[in-house]
């Protein structure tokens, strides 16, 4: 499995829940790039920033899954104009980057509502149940495949980075899952995609069943941590290696 940002959110949750609904599904590994460990923190991080429109997509997603949230949000818009703009993605068949809603970079998404961001408090329990990673990580839910998690140390959307580090620790300590954690120095949320070549090679090696230098089962003492100081140079090097074939060094 693989996902970046929101896709990493889905990948991580699928890994937490796999033992409950897809234990027999053959999975060789999971990669999570810039996973958002806590959706409420992510909302506050994104709001008023260049990626503020992500909050629109996130709220619309929760609305579609929970009728009570949908009704609350629809009743709370400050006016019809705000309602039309916020709900506009629902009228589109497909979206490209920057087209979730037009012109919302730097916007205060909470200003669309009479009660601001009160919905975060009103539905706190729901948002914690569906939006806080790590709550289902137990030995009983051990995935039985390795994980790779990567993120920029300046990620403004998923900060604080300590939350991601804590997620890694939970997987290692509670399930003894082998986790490769890569931190990309100096990169923010969008810049973190420079970790993709390393992720692709890791995936390629997993499918090729390449022997790894760290233990198959892993454990609390098996860090598997790495800080990449020059991500752009690393990306070029990995892309060259991908052309030549899987590397036993990665």
UniProtKB/TrEMBL annotation:
Which superkingdom is the protein from?
A: Eukaryota
The keyword Hydrolase appears for this protein: yes
What InterPro entries does the database record attribute to this sequence?
A: AB_hydrolase_fold (IPR029058), Lipase_secreted (IPR005152)
Question: Which Gene3D superfamilies is this protein grouped with?
Answer: alpha/beta hydrolase
Look up the record and give one Gene Ontology term from the biological process aspect: lipid catabolic process
Q: Does the keyword Hydrolase apply?
A: yes
The organism's lineage is: Eukaryota, Fungi, Dikarya, Ascomycota, Pezizomycotina
Print the keywords alphabetically.
Hydrolase
Name of the protein this chain belongs to = Uncharacterized protein
Give one GO molecular function term.
triacylglycerol lipase activity
């Amino acid at each position: 499995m693989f996902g970046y940002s929101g896709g990493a959110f889905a990948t991580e949750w699928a890994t937490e829940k796999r033992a409950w609904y897809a234990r027999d599904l053959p999975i060789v590994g999971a990669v999570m790039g810039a996973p958002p460990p806590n959706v409420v923190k992510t909302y506050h991080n994104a709001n008023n920033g260049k990626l503020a429109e992500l909050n629109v997509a996130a709220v619309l997603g929760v609305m579609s899954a929970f009728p009570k949230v949908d009704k609350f949000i629809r009743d709370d818009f400050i006016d019809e104009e705000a309602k039309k703009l916020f709900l506009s993605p629902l009228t589109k068949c497909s979206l490209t980057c920057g087209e979730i809603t037009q012109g919302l970079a730097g916007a205060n998404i909470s200003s669309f509502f009479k009660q601001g961001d009160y919905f975060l408090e009103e539905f706190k329990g729901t948002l914690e149940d569906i939006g806080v990673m790590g709550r289902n990580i137990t030995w009983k839910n051990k995935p039985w495949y390795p994980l790779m998690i990567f993120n920029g140390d300046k990620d403004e959307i998923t900060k604080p980075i300590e939350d991601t580090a804590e997620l890694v620790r939970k997987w290692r300590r509670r399930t003894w899952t082998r986790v490769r954690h890569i931190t990309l120095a100096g990169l923010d949320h969008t810049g973190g995609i420079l970790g993709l070549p390393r992720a692709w090679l890791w995936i390629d090696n997993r499918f090729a069943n390449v022997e790894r230098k760290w233990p198959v089962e892993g454990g609390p003492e098996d860090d598997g941590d790495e800080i990449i100081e020059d991500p752009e140079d690393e990306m070029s090097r990995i892309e060259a290696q991908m052309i030549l074939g899987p590397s036993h060094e990665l």
